[in-house]
Each structure stands twice: as C-alpha cells, then as structure tokens.
Amino acid sequence: MSILEAIILGIIQGLTEFIPISSSGHLVAAQTFMSGASSHLFLEWINVGTVLALIVYFRRRIMRIVHDVIAGRNYHLARNIVIAMLPAGLVGYVFADFIEANAFFSSVWTVVVMLVLVGVLLIISDKLPSLSSTVLEKLPSRRALTIGLIQVLALIPGTSRSGSTIIAGRMMGMRAADAAEFSFLVSIPIMLGVITKLLSKSDDRLYLMQNLEPLLWGNIAALISGLLAVGFLMKYLQSRSLAIFGWYRIALAVVIVLVLLVQ
User: What are 235-244's contacts with CB under 8 Å, separation 24+?
Assistant: First the structure.
C-alpha cells in the first residue's frame, strides 16, 4: 500500500468512525477505486489514531470521571460506561475470528443493506422526544445495558458504532448530543481493547513492523480527521437534526450499488 492510499484511508476512517455514516461503507467505496483492497489488519491498526482522537477531545471529561471515581463522589457514569461496553466488547472478543472468516461480514451487500437500514432508523430516531439535558449523568443502568446490547449490531459492517449507539440513546430518551457523547466515551475502552488484542498476537505485531510507515501516516491522518469529526458532530448535534446523516447513508448505498452494477 502506498503512503497516499494509507493517508486517504486514515482520513476516511477518522471522519466516518465518529460521524454516524459508517466507516466500513466508506472504506469499501474507497477501496473500489484504489489499486487494491487493504488488509483488515491495516484498518484495525489505524484504530490507534481514532482512539487517540477521542482521548484528546474528551481528556477533561475523562479526567473528571476518573477523579470522581477515585474520590468516591460519583461513579454512576463510569459504571454505565462499563455496563454499555461489555456486550460489544465480549461478543467482539469471543467471535472475532468467526466474524473475520464469515462471508456475510465481508460482503459488500451486507454493507449496503445496513447503510439503508440504519439510515432509516436515524431518520426515525430524530423524531423521538428527549428528556432533560442532564440525562447522561442520570441514565439508569438498565438503559445503559440496553444501549450496550444494541451496540453489538455495530459488529455488522455498514452499521456504524456511533450510529447504533446514538439510535439506542435516542430510544432511551437521550438528546442526540448526549447520546453521541456517551457513544464516544463507551467507544474508548472498546477500541483500546481491540488494540490490546492486536498487540497480543505475534502475527498482528509482525504486520505492524512490516507496514510501519503506511500505518504511521494512516494513524496521523485518522487522528487529525477524527478530532475534526468529533468536534464537528458534538457542535452540530447541539441544535441540528440527525436525519441528514440517515439520508446521506441511503444515498451512499445507492452509489455503491450503482458502482457494483457497472463493474
């Protein structure tokens, strides 16, 4: 893989991992026009850049959560983050090899279907009522677990981790901005777990060493574009609609289908 392709994939990963429009859908579309498909390991390794973007953006929020837990003042949000991350984290860890080997999870048509399905759900969720702006701090644990269970669907390509969690949060009565923030906070330990698993496997470490330069540039691109994407989405959702992302997903699905038909 060339450095230019690594940077392009890093930019796409950073932008689309956090905006609920599906990173896998965009990466499939991008690779269609590139010289060759990238390794799934490349896409997993550039999670380093995307998780760093989240840590940098939410650093003050993370420090407050850690400080409150250590001080014993308020562990409610930290507990809900753990509860919500466990279903997807455990399913992803146990079934990772099955997911990678199963043709269903690597099919472009799976991506297309999920782009449309989640797009429709985003449009519908935009019409749901919201509770108070402090709901993130007071979210009941059972609702956090429900959000975590729905987030398991993000293991299907084309779903979007942020998209599934935001939809689940809206179903629980959260404002779109609060649901997005909770989604990102839950994503941090999950993504750190993915990186830890990569580091634990000799073959994955070997891939890192053999592709260090493109991975470095890809992660730098993912970090910068990820910071921009998170900042944009958090400000956008304060006063604007989720529906535009749903319509965008549907349009992208149509474009991918057209490309496949003319090939």
Answer: 237/175, 237/176, 237/177, 237/180, 238/177, 241/126, 242/20, 242/122, 242/123, 242/125, 242/126, 242/166, 242/170, 242/176, 243/122, 243/123, 243/126
